[in-house]
């Protein structure tokens, strides 16, 4: 008889995400095994339970989803998960802690609709957070020159180093961006801006955006007003504003959700997938 | 494809209720997302996960059940749940913490089978607890004059005030009832008595009940001997005892269970229902 | 309509076992209600929720599985579960904390394939642990004379006493086994040896095993090298080694898994089963 598809949800938050669970249900997962408050040292037993219960030919019917609001904690859980695997004894796993991978993928896909990225210069504001860093990785992976902006140069440089370890050929420029002048210089000459800042912090004033003559796409990933890029509405989805195509957090949400569901479904096509930012982005590219 | 029905179980107890889960399964819920030890400050993320995953046209396929043995904690969780909603962005929710709503509804429905409530005088013993207060609300909502009895007048008056805020036209009389004389006076002239006390506390001695000449229906909601109303058996279900029709906790349990299941099913008929005591009682009325 | 089969998983570990959950899914359980970190004083409410939600004629569609890595904690949970039952108000329950029952059953079944146990003398090394004690019980229950070996005589004697309380006619010999001479004497004259020690501890050196002329079956239940019985591979499954048929931990794992699934399925055939080591072993016998 056909095995039911089982998704093991490992979440570092005390209460495992309802969001991730509903998406899994809508991605046709048959059975969810949900775990909240997962500590790294508990991962092994849980993963062994996924690995050692079904024969090798059935292991692709079991998969693992790593979530939770703390992206660094999720990354540590993912590391522990993959350490359990050996030879053919493994199950597929995806990480989307805090939605960072699907959000960054949806944002970069939105930009790619309007600008050939391998020829573009892009600016990521608040690039050192989890979504920002992933946006930098995905843009650089597509061949874009990326300006990596943070409030301090040291943090921007650290983010660049982290990306360069994954993508040695990445063309990155770390920038300290605080004053209006620094913002203006950072935007100047870019075709794409992605703002990935915390809720309620304005990163790009409207008058500077309006004066950025090369800017083709402006994407703001903050759903709570005020927007990180002044003038963008959260619901913007390809909205023309003073020469730039604009997207807000809700505007990229539809794509984000489709990518999330497609990634969950893909987990059950093989038992050896590890879906992190790049793999999830590639999946989004294949969908469009 | 049809969305599966998802019920998010928010329970303030460390271990979420198995009782509520089994009833949900038997009410044909497809997927249960169970959360125990839910603190008020964690509600928002969980509810957002229910609200922001399915499109507006599909939101009635997701609903929330608030439970747990602590009714006050459940009420706070419900308050936090409804605070998350805005405009059409909402899902249906019901509260039955400690079974208080379905128990009170089943008790008042049992009384209504034998006495026209809008003409009746009813006494609720131990009326300040969660089940007692709900019984007072439901009786008053049906137009009955209700005597609200507690060990102290202050608590009885506070319970009346709480009910009056919801039902300004309620006809309530607060009573301090401790001595046999006070019990006798409280029962005298009533057609309905509901005892909603804690396990093992006798509230109405048999000789007083026998001498209450107007009494038509006596309902005791305590399943553990001794009964709150002496002489009633927990399994009584319309049993005639000295001129009064009697119900015990198990005797109203069948109706309680049917109401509980019907309420869960109703959650999935719309995305804007809030099922508290009155709505659950109305559902029970419609079933009979 | 047919009731869905519900299995309530009570696990003493903070994170309930994924292993047990996947096996339950593959045993065709419809709905899993999983509880981790279950404390004895929380059992009653959970079990009442299983007992009081479906009518007596439907109670066999709900069952309880007690698991967790701590076998003593699991036994206490089982005791609390069965204390809740009265008259026909009960549901079936099985315990397989740390896999001890299914592992011991699979090991003794493997031995029984090659040696008539009611005529045999068997040695259980590390017999005082949860798997070892169950192996002793099952061997004694089949009529074998059992040598019960531990590092100290006092612990071996205590284990014998515990088994004799269940099986008064058991033929047990407690042994302190530390030195090579003690191991040699313990093995001498036995047809069956089962090693149930902790990971990484060698209990029976290869040269002593080779010189044990009566030995027909050697079973090692340790999956992590070095083996408890030197020379046995974890994957041995009836492997001939110097005159003895050998089984390793993985070699008995297939049978263990089949027994586990069959036991879960059997839970739903009646509402009054308590499946502990002997019942699970009997189920394994019936399968072969």
Q: Tell me which CATH architecture of the largest domain in chain A applies here.
A: 3-Layer(aba) Sandwich
The CATH homologous superfamily of the largest domain in chain A is called: NAD(P)-binding Rossmann-like Domain
Strand order of the largest sheet of chain A: 7-6-5-8-9-11-10
This entry's quaternary arrangement is: homotrimer
SS class of chain A: alpha/beta
What would the principal axes of the Cα set say about the shape of chain A? elongated
CATH class term of the largest domain in chain A: Alpha Beta
Mean pLDDT of chain A: 95
Largest interface: A-B, 17 and 20 residues
Flag low-confidence runs of chain A. none
Extended strand count of chain A:
12
Total count of helical runs of at least 4 residues of chain A: 10
Total domain units of chain A: 2
Order of helices and strands of chain A: EHEHEHEHEHEHEHEHEEEHEH
CATH fold-level topology of the largest domain in chain A = Rossmann fold
Distance between the termini of chain A: 35 Å
Radius of gyration of chain A: 19 Å
Would you kindly provide a written description of the structure presented here, covering whatever features stand out?
The structure is a homotrimer of 288-residue chains. With 288 residues, chain A is of the alpha/beta class. The first copy, chain A, has two domains: 6-95, Methylene-tetrahydromethanopterin dehydrogenase, N-terminal domain (Rossmann fold, 3-Layer(aba) Sandwich), CATH 3.40.50; 103-252, NAD(P)-binding Rossmann-like Domain (Rossmann fold), CATH 3.40.50.720. Chain A is 38% helix and 20% strand. The first copy, chain A, is built from ten helices and twelve strands. In chain A, the strands form two sheets. The first copy, chain A, has a seven-stranded mixed β-sheet with strand order 7-6-5-8-9-11-10, with helices on both faces. In chain A, strands 2-1-3-4-12 form a five-stranded parallel β-sheet, with helices on both faces. The longest helix of chain A is centred in the last third of the chain and has 15 residues, at 253-267. Chain A is elongated and about 60 Å long. The two termini of chain A are 35 Å apart. The relative contact order of chain A is 0.14. Chains in contact: A-B, A-C, B-C. The A-B interface holds A 13-15, 17-23, 25-26, 32, 34, 69, 253, 257 and B 3-4, 6, 8, 31, 33, 35, 37-38, 42, 45-50, 52-54, 62.
């Amino acid at each position: 008889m056909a095995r039911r598809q089982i998704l093991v949800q490992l979440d570092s938050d005390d209460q495992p995400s309802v969001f991730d669970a509903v998406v899994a249900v809508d991605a046709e997962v048959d059975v969810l095994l949900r775990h909240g408050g997962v500590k790294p040292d508990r991962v092994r037993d849980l993963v062994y339970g996924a690995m050692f219960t079904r024969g090798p030919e059935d292991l692709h019917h079991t998969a693992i989803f790593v979530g939770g609001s703390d992206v660094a904690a999720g990354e540590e859980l993912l590391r522990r998960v993959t350490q359990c695997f050996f030879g053919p004894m493994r199950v597929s796993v995806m990480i989307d802690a805090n939605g960072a991978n699907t959000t960054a993928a949806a944002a970069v896909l939105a930009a790619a609709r309007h600008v050939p990225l391998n020829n573009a210069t892009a600016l990521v504001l608040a690039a050192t957070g989890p979504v920002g860093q992933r946006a930098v990785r995905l843009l650089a992976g597509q061949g874009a020159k990326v300006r990596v902006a943070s409030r301090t140069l040291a943090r921007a440089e650290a983010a660049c180093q982290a990306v360069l370890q994954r993508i040695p050929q990445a063309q990155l420029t770390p920038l300290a961006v605080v004053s209006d002048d620094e913002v203006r210089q950072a935007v100047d000459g870019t075709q794409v801006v992605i703002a990935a800042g915390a809720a309620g912090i304005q990163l790009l004033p409207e008058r500077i955006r309006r004066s950025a003559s090369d800017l083709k796409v402006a994407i703001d990933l903050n759903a709570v007003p005020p927007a990180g890029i002044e003038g963008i509405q959260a619901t913007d989805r390809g909205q023309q504003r003073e020469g730039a195509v604009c997207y807000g957090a809700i505007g990229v949400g539809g794509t984000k959700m489709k990518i999330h569901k497609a990634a969950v479904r893909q987990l059950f096509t093989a038992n050896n997938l590890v879906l992190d930012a790049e793999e999830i982005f590639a999946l989004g590219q294949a969908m469009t």
